[in-house]
């Protein structure tokens, strides 16, 4: 059986990254100076470029170790790794540019550096993704396993065991349980691994069996035993993880914060709380919405003219919505209805064959073209391209009393499209299901997930059969 040596794998990743960077260097050199496809002046000697390529590779690996790019990845998502790769190479590029300036090597081709930088990120991300998929396949076939001992055979321990069986790609195998109440917790079904002894037998069990991680799944009453269990594991050099007895109250991805030197469990991990993630998302929003408005400018003008020709009233309909941190803002849409008192539009749902709509408004709603002005909301900072759809204050007050965790959606900026909408939950669909999708998006945000949602939105088309 293949046993993973993390130190060896970290070194292998680092060496492979350096080799990949040098291959990208050769490819970029050929494209820029040898292919004849790109005009260029007489280049500096090849040896100059080789030297700086090697330096860049060394910088990238050093920054990678500093930012934990080479830490264990078995339990991590690839999107997290991809973001880390981009961060590492952005920092490495700035370090390289600083060195080039310091040593007055100012004649290095800028377009070559751009190809080198982008190529390094792309090729390293591709090979790491393929490797991650290959390792998952190997683990599913029983290779590259890590062995787990569960301390606690009660409800927590059994649920963890059953959940682990649904994820063979992680490559974890439970060797058994330890529990002080073996008779009470004796398993009625054979599919569970055996109870090997009591918690006091932990040291002997670690001595007799090959164990990589110990999972403590004991109830709160057993809290006094945690210290001795962790001590035994650390003495044996075995990693320890704790499942809190109150985990049913926690979201899927809680994390630890540090406050006044005390570790605290943050009950909701929101990736967009990280400043770097917020900057990345906001920068993408500004770029994407600007391009979208430029491309659709003729359509916007045509729609505005047709609204004026087909009905009386303003072109743009403004409506109060609840956004980030429960703050309200005015959301823009093309007007699709006849002029009505404001309180009616704020407290009523549209229904099929709604008499309030204009004939052109019905077309705009069905094709989602009435949403185009919301790109201005994105530019103004009220909304994001991707996020939970914002709702009117009247319905927010209603839903927060009826739907558990409804208000969690206001932890981030609302969006023009979202995870729920890209999965068909648009218009007259279940609010409960939409909130489940919104919370999943909030807890699992990544830049790649945003791109996936935009792609699914475009791929599925803008026609909305549930829009009235």
What would you call the shape? flat
Helical segment count? 16
Residue share in helix: 40-55%
Order of helical and strand elements: HHHHEHEEHEHEEEHHEEHHHEHEHHH
State the separation between the terminal residues, measured CA to CA.
Answer: 59 Å
In terms of DSSP E residues, the strand content is: 5-15%
Count of extended strands: 11
Please describe the biggest sheet, giving its number of strands, its sense, and whether it closes into a barrel.
Answer: 5 strands, parallel
Strand order of the largest sheet: 3-2-1-4-5
Instruction: Tell me the radius of gyration.
Output: 28 Å
Give the low-confidence spans: none
Task: Output mean pLDDT.
Answer: 85
Broad structural category? alpha/beta
Number of domains: 3
How would you describe this structure in keywords?
single chain; 468 residues; alpha/beta; Rossmann fold; 3 domains; five-stranded parallel β-sheet; 16 helices; 12% strand
């Amino acid at each position: 059986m293949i046993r993973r040596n993390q130190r060896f794998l970290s070194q292998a990743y680092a060496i492979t990254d350096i080799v990949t960077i040098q291959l990208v260097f050769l490819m970029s050199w050929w494209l820029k100076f040898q292919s004849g496809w790109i005009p260029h002046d007489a280049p500096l000697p090849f040896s100059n470029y080789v030297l700086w390529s090697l330096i860049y590779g060394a910088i990238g690996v050093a920054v990678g170790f500093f930012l934990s790019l080479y830490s264990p990845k078995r339990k991590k998502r690839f999107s997290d790794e991809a973001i880390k790769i981009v961060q590492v190479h952005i920092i490495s590029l700035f370090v390289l540019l600083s060195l080039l300036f310091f040593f007055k090597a100012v004649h290095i081709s800028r377009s070559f550096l751009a190809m080198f930088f982008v190529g390094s990120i792309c090729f390293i991300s591709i090979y790491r993704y393929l490797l991650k998929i290959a390792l998952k396949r190997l683990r599913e076939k029983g290779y590259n396993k890590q062995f787990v001992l569960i301390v606690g055979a009660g409800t927590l321990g059994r649920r963890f065991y059953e959940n682990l069986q649904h994820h063979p790609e992680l490559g974890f195998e439970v060797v058994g349980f330890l529990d002080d109440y073996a008779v009470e917790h004796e398993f009625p079904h054979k599919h569970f691994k055996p109870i090997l002894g009591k918690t006091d037998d932990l040291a002997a069990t670690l001595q007799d069996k090959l164990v990589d991680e110990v999972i403590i799944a004991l109830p709160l009453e057993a809290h006094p035993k945690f210290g001795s269990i962790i001590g035994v594991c650390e003495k044996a050099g075995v990693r320890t993880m704790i499942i809190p007895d109150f985990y049913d109250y926690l979201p899927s991805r809680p994390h630890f914060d540090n406050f006044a030197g005390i570790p605290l469990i943050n009950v909701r991990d929101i990736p967009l709380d990280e400043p770097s993630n917020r900057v990345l998302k906001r920068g993408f929003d500004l770029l994407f919405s600007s391009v979208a408005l430029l491309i659709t400018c003729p359509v916007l003008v045509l729609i505005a003219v047709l609204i004026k020709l087909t009905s009386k009233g303003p072109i743009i309909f403004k409506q109060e919505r609840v956004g980030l941190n429960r703050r309200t803002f005015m959301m823009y849409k093309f007007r699709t209805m006849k002029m009505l008192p404001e309180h009616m539009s704020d407290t009523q749902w549209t229904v099929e064959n709604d008499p309030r709509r204009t004939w052109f408004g019905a077309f705009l709603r069905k094709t989602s073209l009435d949403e185009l002005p919301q790109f201005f909301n994105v530019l103004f900072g009220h909304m994001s391209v991707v996020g939970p759809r914002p709702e009117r204050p009247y319905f927010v007050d209603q839903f927060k009393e009826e739907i558990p965790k409804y208000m969690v959606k206001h932890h981030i900026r609302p969006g023009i499209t979202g995870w729920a909408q890209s999965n068909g939950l648009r218009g007259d669909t279940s609010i409960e299901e939409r909130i489940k999708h919104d919370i999943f998006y909030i807890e699992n945000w990544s830049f790649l997930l945003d791109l996936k949602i935009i792609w699914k939105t475009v791929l599925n088309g803008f026609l909305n059969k549930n829009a009235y």
